[in-house]
Design a protein that fits this description.
By secondary structure, this protein is of the alpha/beta class. It has helices at residues 3-6, 25-36, 52-60, 74-88, 114-142, 154-157, 163-183, 210-215, 227-237; strands spanning 16-20, 40-45, 64-68, 93-96, 145-150, 188-195, 248-251. The chain has a seven-stranded parallel sheet, with helices on both faces. It starts with a helix and ends in a 7-residue tail after the last strand.
């Protein structure tokens, strides 16, 4: 076992991580694993999402802070960074996990309206950009930083009746590459993680047998859960990934091979 894998309890010691979409099923797992690895975690979620789950995360560690944030609003993303700096003095990692997916209704492309596109792009693309734009001056001043975007394996395999969602995640992959070039000279890495279909409390109600179908397409033949993504998030947040940038790591159990 590698030293990184055997010593996750200190892999992120002293690091300050900003996590958007922290209140969702996947975000909560990320937050717990980040804190377990020694990070101070700033939990960003919609202003009305101060749920018991968020409260549990905050009370679990004195190194956790909840900052109500709508990533669509540039003012709120700037306040998120300011609150982070006021509490912890720096920002080492930004994880752009906030996204629209489970609430979307699958429908053929000819039924998509401009408003459908605007809704998805506002969160998945503009929201990601707003957070990166807000944190970049701090990371440039530090001459270090890690930005982790959340894409989707749907970009590589296609997903019918979710054109606006797939397009938004394709934009995230493209942004990751472009920003890696732009921010690399400042010592900032930019990478993305591309999950497959993740089975959790948010996807279960509308699953309709999809999980079982997707399992048959995976080399590992297993269900993907939020825990399956956490290891890659920890790796990209840690010093172990310091020489990796501009990459999208597919974590889907072998459904998509590139």
């Amino acid at each position: 076992m590698s030293s990184f894998a055997s010593d996750l309890s200190t892999a992120l010691a002293g690091r300050v991580v900003i996590l958007t979409g922290a209140g969702g099923p996947i975000g909560r797992v990320y937050a717990r694993r980040l804190m377990d690895a020694g990070a101070s975690v700033v939990l960003a979620e919609l202003p009305d999402a101060h749920t018991p789950a968020i409260e549990e995360l905050v009370t679990a560690s004195r190194h956790a802070l909840f900052v109500p944030t709508d990533v669509r609003d540039r003012t709120q993303t700037e306040r998120l960074i300011n609150k982070t700096l006021a509490a912890f003095g720096k920002a080492d990692v930004l994880i752009n996990n906030a996204a629209l997916y489970t609430s979307l209704v699958r429908q053929p492309m000819e039924r998509l309206e401009t408003a459908d596109w605007e809704q998805v792009l506002a969160v998945n693309v503009i929201g990601t950009f707003n957070c990166i734009r807000a944190v970049t001056p701090t990371m440039q001043k530090q001459a270090s930083g890690k930005i982790i975007n959340v894409a989707s394996n749907a970009v590589h395999k296609g997903l019918p009746q979710m054109l606006h969602y797939v397009a938004s995640k394709g934009a995230v992959v493209a942004m990751t590459r472009s920003m890696a070039r732009e921010l690399g000279p400042s010592g900032i890495t930019v990478n993305a993680i591309a999950p497959g279909y993740v089975y959790h409390e948010g996807t279960i109600p509308a699953d309709g047998g999809r999980n079982e179908q997707v399992k048959t397409l995976r080399a590992l033949g297993k269900t993907e859960t939020p825990e399956d993504l956490a290891g890659t998030i920890l790796f990209l947040s840690s010093a172990a990934s310091d020489f990796i940038t501009g990459q999208t790591i597919i974590v889907d159990g072998g459904e998509v091979f590139l």
